[in-house]
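The following record pairs a protein chain with its ligand, flavin mononucleotide.
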Amino acid sequence: MAPKEVRVCSFGRHIEDYWKLSVYEQTKLCEDAEEGMVGYSAARKALTTMSPDEVIEEVKRSGLRGKGGAGFNTGLKWSFMPKDDGLEHFLVVNGDESEPGTANDREIMTWSPHLLLEGIIIASYAIRANTCYIYIRGEMFKQIRCMNRAIEEAYEKGYLGKNIFGTDFSLDVYVQTGAGAYICGEETALLSSLMGERGYPRPKPPFPAQKGAFDLPTTVNNVQTIATVPAIIALGADWHLSYGTEKSPGMRMFCVSGHVQRPGHYEFPFGITLRELIYDVCGGPPGGKKVKAVIPGGSSAPMIPGDATDNDLLDTPLTYEDCVTAGTLLGSGAVIVMDEDTDIVWAAHNLIRFYAHESCGKCTPCREGTPWMRMVLERILRGEGVSEDVKLLADIAEGIETKSFCALGDAAAWAMQGALRHFSHEFEEKIRRGKGAAKVFQASYASGLMSLYQPTLEPVRTHRDPRREAEQIAHPLARRMRAWYGGDEE
Ligand SMILES: Cc1cc2nc3c(=O)[nH]c(=O)nc-3n(C[C@H](O)[C@H](O)[C@H](O)COP(=O)(O)O)c2cc1C
Ligand code: SF4
């Protein structure tokens, strides 16, 4: 039986017109909310009955962990903001969401923009910020529109602006758009981009709480993190602690993509297993196939083997601690499923091509290492791999991991290492088969071209359809690809 969803951030997705202020104000905050716990009541409670430090303490006690990837305790992060320093403080909400497979934040911004705004009011009050920037990837036109419309409504109703709820707390919120670079999701690169500079990561320390936006104290939080805060303030830290596990309390949204019958967004308490999510909730791979590999937390998390292998790790609970034990990461909560027919070398190439493209070029290991891995993978896929290539890929990944300036380099290394750790035999087999394996690559390279640069709900397209492949080979783009990559015409 499928486990029961506990909807907090995805609650509004199922209510008509929830994005409108008039509906949000009259609807309960989440499934567990009691009478009167409607939209903006949590912000009212925080601002009129709690001090900023009490809000921080409640969020800290709830164990809420940041949902942008690293899983840092949110209340603790807020407590690092200086007090009574007389400086302007900022809250920056990270809505860049450019990691392949990840599409949770855009759901919240589209369907529940006022939930995010309510979280922003509470968080800004706690960290004593009077200005908040919501940084959204530039291509997300719809989310930018939705947030701007909600901000306008909130100003009109007095939820934003001067003296909110009759208190002396004032807040201005702005949407800032990025130009569409994965690195601008990294908090320090985001801050540079926000300030109009090139989106390069900055050294830490100083951390954003000391020197962030415009060199002033700043907290950067993910959209889903902030959208969880109103429910915690309304229902209390103990309510949040009653879900999930000791080290991973609460719930989170998972967006499931790839080879499942029912891909989409689901919100569960931490601890649901991959098997439950993939099979009971999403119906398993189409055609009764088994799972060869899963990426549980967006493209940066190493892939782990599924039930089509001898080392089935699908019973891994989706918690921070259990994912680490299984040799992977919970990351952004984007679960990418690859069925038994997936070509893992192709999938690894798809991932590494993304990192090589998105490397900002600031540091040598990542700038040089990611295209090098891509080239070696392409050599293997062309049927020209040599027996040393598997070790070479492992060596390059090791040369990037922990030696890069920011975590993008680590993420590229982990993606490669995950594929090699569990599926090195597939790389060896492809090298052994040589040219015999090359034709599939040329066809699928053309078909997968767009899936890489745009995070989609189906980033790993590796189903082989001989009829489509034949059409693609006849396509002029495919012919050009074949010429570039040196394939023969047969
Ligand atoms: C390359 C890279 C991309 C990232 N992209 C995002 C992103 O799109 N959204 C996000 O919230 N965090 C992203 N992060 C993590 C942020 O640096 C930061 O840890 C996060 O926004 C903090 O919010 P949280 O504590 O609420 O999780 C990224 C990190 C790296 C290294
Ligand atoms: S690791 Fe990659 S993305 Fe990060 S600073 Fe170095 S080159 Fe740029």
